TrEMBL record:
It comes from the Bacteria. It comes from Rhodothermus profundi. This is Large ribosomal subunit protein bL25. Residues 6-90 form the Large ribosomal subunit protein bL25 L25 domain. This is one of the proteins that binds to the 5S RNA in the ribosome where it forms part of the central protuberance. GO terms for molecular function: 5S rRNA binding; structural constituent of ribosome. Belongs to the bacterial ribosomal protein bL25 family. CTC subfamily.
Amino acid sequence: MAIITIEAKPRETGKRAAKAIRRQGWVPCILYGHHVEPVPFQIPELKLRPLIYTTETHLVKLELNGQTWDCILKDVEFHPVTDRPIHADFQVLRTTEKITVTVPVRIVGTAIGVQRGGVLQLVTHELEVTCLPKDIPAHIDIDVTNLDIGDALHVGDLQFEGLEFEEAPDQTVVVIAAPQIGGLEEEEGAEGEAGTAEAGSGTSA
């Protein structure tokens, strides 16, 4: 998994201070974890974007107050109008302590059902897993090669060493749906009816 190093600065707390920080292009953040007192800090908005606009999970080395913290981006709050990040939570990682994180799903392979005209539908784009920091995956690869039309994979079907899935076992992750042929059948039926009508008109003449 990729590691991103971010240099942070301490910040003052409070709404007025937070507004001032945002006006300068920074994002107010908080660092927390078990056995760690919450630490307020700020980072440039541009430094936060690689952690937000990505299809992978990243580990973060946060440099703050002369210390380096291994952590992970846990939550981001966005402005309701501009959609810009206005606050972020980072959780400290401890090598012996499991953590629950949300990991993107990535499809691998081409399903048999797709080759036969079926449509792949990714129902669950992210999965919540609990694991040790060393086992946090950048993404969860789902091999769909052997799925035929009508087949589906559920959370209970997934087996990855070191990962505990938090979703219900019957939660659908991906399904190969049958092709939509209703429209084609209707068009063919309409063409047939038109042909019959034309034939009838020719006979009466």
